[in-house]
Design goal:
This protein is mainly α. Helix content is 63%, strand content 9%. α2 packs antiparallel against α3.
């Protein structure tokens, strides 16, 4: 992914909005006795869209922002979100590479031109008369 200043601003707004929504709304609303955590979902999504470097940077920044807001040990959330973003981006890059290589390696299936008792007309086998 080519990162331009406009893309950096958009990514920063997405991360900031998600962190504010997580701490302001979703952490206060229990759903079935549990609290929804949007941050890993957003980090993995951006890692899938941007690649390994983008995913790991976004994961690190998001985790660092969480650690600063919570006031806990710096780097705990950063490490896990950075790993999630990196692995998602790495998976994307591996899938892209496999798709490119697979498309180049595909060859048309070889079909025998003649078999005993079968004639090939227009790509479809036809039974030969008397065969």
């Amino acid at each position: 992914m080519i990162v331009t200043p406009q893309i950096v601003v958009r990514l920063a707004l997405i991360v900031l909005t998600t962190v504010l929504l997580q701490f302001g709304f979703f952490s206060q609303v229990p759903i079935l006795g549990s609290v929804a955590n949007l941050l890993p979902v957003v980090v993995v999504s951006l890692g899938l869209l941007g690649g390994a470097v983008t995913g790991s940077v976004i994961g690190f920044v998001t985790g660092l922002l969480i650690d600063v807001l919570i006031g806990g040990t710096l780097g705990v959330a950063s490490l896990s979100l950075m790993a999630a973003g990196y692995l998602a981006g790495r998976w994307r890059e591996g899938v892209d590479e496999r798709a490119r290589v697979g498309a180049l390696q595909r060859r048309p299936r070889r079909v025998p031109l003649e078999r005993p008792g079968v004639k090939w007309l227009g790509g479809r086998p036809q039974r030969a008369i008397g065969g």
